[in-house]
Amino acid sequence: MVTIKDLPKEEYLLKGHAACAGCGPSIALRLLFKALGNKVIMVVPACCTTVIQGPYPLTCFAVPLQNMLFEATGATASGIVAALRIKGLEDITVVGWAGDGGTVDIGIQALSGAAERGTNFIYICYDNEAYGNTGLQRSGATPYGAWTTTTPKGKKERKKDMPFIMAAHRIPYVATACPSYPIDLINKLRKAREIKGTKYIHILTPCPTGWRYDTSKTIEIGRLAVQTGVWALYEIENGRFKLNPPSDRLVDKTKRKPVKEYLSMQERFRHLTDADIEKIQKWVDEDWEFYRTLTTLERCI
Amino acid sequence: MKIPKTLKEMPLTPLSLPTIGSMGKTGTWRTFRPIIDYSKCTKCTLCWIYCPDAAITRRDDDSPEIDYEYCKGCGICANECPVKAIAMKREEE
Ligand SMILES: Cc1ncc(C[n+]2csc(CCOP(=O)(O)OP(=O)(O)O)c2C)c(N)n1
Ligand code: SF4
Ligand code: SF4
Ligand code: SF4
């Protein structure tokens, strides 16, 4: 079993980058490189990660990285994978790294196309639940009730279930993760690297700027998202659904913390009424009943 | 248009070079300074793995060292340290 001390000391996300203090996606990026090293080529569409790099002609990324148009991550990665195949450079892992807006809304068709073609790459959606780069507009991944600049009274619609949309493409590997559980994330990335075909990993990455909480709480909030069951850690491998620790213990409702503990730590949920919180709790409980059923099936989709 | 065959024939493309401090000395953003009490530290390396800014290095003996030139003072390390060995002190103090 891998432990934190086994992880390499090398940094490929160099210090002095442009992310806000306490940025969750930056922690996930560091973990990405701890897992895969520098034998990667990244494709990044317009998102916070474009800004994090710093101003041209400098960048904090010590790996090859192609910045790309918002909607084109899947297509660009497909081209790079084809070029590497022709050049016989098959030990390099192509990683698409996009925000939730660039994944669940704007990049979904290029990603869906790449998945349908079975493009051999890892696609990662780092989910800060809004369009962060442009000043926090709502996305299809913003959860019900959350304040954003375009939902001043809270979003009225529910979060899109992107991992299951990807699982419906019958790709070999889909997983969810959160940087508060670094070893789980690293194991999933390393497993994904060994599988041929399209691999999709959806990482919940708390964002102090958008979620409105103190910068020191990023890891704590990610942990609460998992402990309350708002975010479940699971894998769907060849269609088979499996909950990972600590989520595997949370099927029993009494083991889950109330969602209120997670919501009340974030200003973006400040205006929620008790009825709203009850509604969110009910939806989370329903999701877990669904997960319970899925764990008994040979194929979940 | 002729398709380029060698690297030399390729058109010039904008390229950024990996640089420590691509955004400058981000330590100047800091309001609170994390200070490690090494007498309490158990060298668990949690602060190292959670720092969003790669501002903590792991020494050979696994003890952490903070680079104040780049640490933005987010306080994650202090919040996550299991033995509360890191204190956040206002910069002026
Ligand atoms: C087609 C197109 N529409 C809009 C933009 C402007 N834009 C750039 S980044 C961005 C937000 C990205 O949000 P997300 O993908 O969630 O990533 P985050 O910034 O939150 O990391 C937008 C709207 C663009 N570059 N291209
Ligand atoms: S807005 Fe959020 S995700 Fe974007 S750089 Fe700032 S903290 Fe990170
Ligand atoms: S305060 Fe934040 S940036 Fe500074 S060392 Fe601690 S975790 Fe890293
Ligand atoms: S988290 Fe605390 S105990 Fe662990 S290495 Fe850092 S300072 Fe030491």
Concise summary:
The complex is a heterodimer of chains A (301) and B (93). Chain A contains 11 helices and 9 strands. Chain A has one domain: Thiamin diphosphate (ThDP)-binding fold, Pyr/PP domains (Rossmann fold).
List keywords for this structure.
heterodimer, A: alpha/beta, Rossmann fold, 8-stranded mixed sheet, 11 helices, globular, B: 93 residues, alpha+beta, Alpha-Beta Plaits, two-stranded antiparallel sheet, 2 helices, 19% strand, binds thiamine diphosphate, binds iron/sulfur cluster
Protein described:
The complex is a heterodimer of chains A (301) and B (93). Chain A has helices at 24-36, 48-52, 73-87, 100-105, 108-116, 162-167, 182-194, 208-211, 218-227, 259-263, 274-294, and strands spanning 40-45, 58-59, 65-68, 93-99, 121-127, 173-177, 198-204, 234-237, 240-243. Chain A has 301 residues and is α/β, with parallel strands linked by helices. Chain A has one domain: Thiamin diphosphate (ThDP)-binding fold, Pyr/PP domains (Rossmann fold), CATH 3.40.50.970. In chain A, helix 1 (24-36) packs across helix 7 (182-194) and helix 3 runs parallel beside helix 5 (108-116). Chain A is globular. The two termini of chain A are 30 Å apart. The model of chain A has no long low-confidence stretch (mean pLDDT 98). Chain B is an alpha+beta fold and 93 residues long. Chain B has a single domain, classed as 2-Layer Sandwich (Alpha-Beta Plaits). Chain B has helices spanning 46-50, 76-80, and strands spanning 17-18, 32-36, 56-58, 64-66, 86-90. In chain B, strand 3 and strand 4 form a beta hairpin. The longest helix of chain B is centred in the middle third of the chain and has 5 residues, at 46-50. Chain B is elongated and about 65 Å long. The termini of chain B are far apart. The A-B interface holds A 4-5, 7, 9, 11, 13-19, 21-24, 26-27, 30-31, 34, 53-62, 179, 182, 208, 214-220 and B 14-26, 29-30, 44-46, 48-55, 57-58, 62, 67, 69-70, 72-76, 78-80, 88. The complex binds thiamine diphosphate and iron/sulfur cluster (3 copies). One iron/sulfur cluster is lined by residues 34, 51, 53, 55-56, 66, 71-77 of chain B.
